[in-house]
């Protein structure tokens, strides 16, 4: 039987430390060459925004696929999203914003998890709730492996959906005494600070500027939907670890030059994008191969999995500025989806579906 695991079940069984353990093992396998991230791609079709409530020009239908495999767990996965995305200006910054599609007013995204020893589907997992923790968990592992050992101050830019997992995972990896949070909307950052002060039992302080959030921080995490940079290179101080969820847009390209050491999630570009009308139609990045500044020798940048596996160095001094672009990868989905599948099976949760619905008789296959 194939297990369907929806968001409410994921939310019930997901444990931050458990997910970070799965991600750590997945990255270690990647470092040793026993796991794989396939090239990511996105197909973008321009659409008329008038039939999407709140939609603005330009608006695209976006089909996104991330694939990965981990040999020791016999799992291969394909994470797919079918979304509408537009780029409104909010508080003076362009944003990448998903909007629900008609007529349902809902979103479509899931992970297909396959058993590579049988070639059959193990599970179909909603990607919504798990998605933010597989990125936030990787950012937290960045703190574990790349931050100064005595890190006490965490600076956050962004107070939205993605940052809500990043703060939990960073704080699970280090004993921070103070978290400073900035986002453009005062009410949002103050509500975020109040919620996580209570939830984490440490001071989370809302501040009035991104520069103030960064100043004096040992670790900085940007987690926004901004299309334009929110972190200025001139704010960076010796010894900082910068974990950027969207490295191509949240930080300036000069930050890559300022960093003493860069650790990446993958070889090659972050995205291969195929847009009807050409890449110039895309406000975010405006290129087909998006996400890796050309002035960096990416062939010699260590992969985070190699650091986790002990094959490449982590931090070598407390003055080192380290940049870790924490982008989404297929191996993250493989690790997290498989751990959720295990936990759901243990607890008898999820909905079993006849696996043969996905299988075909040999007579139909050449």
Structural description of this entry:
The chain is of the alpha/beta class and 366 residues long. It folds into 2 domains: 2-130 and 330-364, ornithine cyclodeaminase, domain 1 (2-Layer Sandwich); 133-270 and 296-325, Rossmann fold (3-Layer(aba) Sandwich), CATH 3.40.50.720. The protein is 30% helix and 27% strand. The chain has 10 helices and 20 strands. The strands form 3 sheets. Strands 1, 2, 3, 4, 5, 8, 9, 10, 17, 18 and 20 form an 11-stranded mixed beta sheet that branches. A 7-stranded parallel beta sheet has the order 13-12-11-14-15-19-16. The radius of gyration is 20 Å and the shape is globular. The two termini are 26 Å apart. The relative contact order is 0.20.
Backbone shape: globular
The level 1 CATH classification of the largest domain is Alpha Beta
How would you sum up the major sheet? 11 strands, mixed
Taken together, the total number of domains comes to: 2
Radius of gyration: 20 Å
- Report helical residue fraction: 25-40%
> Helical segment tally?
10
Q: How much is the average pLDDT?
A: 91
CATH third-level topology of the largest domain: Rossmann fold
Distance separating the two termini: 26 Å
What is the number of beta strands? 20
Could you give me the name of the CATH homologous superfamily of the largest domain?
Answer: NAD(P)-binding Rossmann-like Domain
By CATH, the architecture of the largest domain is named 3-Layer(aba) Sandwich
Low-pLDDT stretches are none
Structural class: alpha/beta
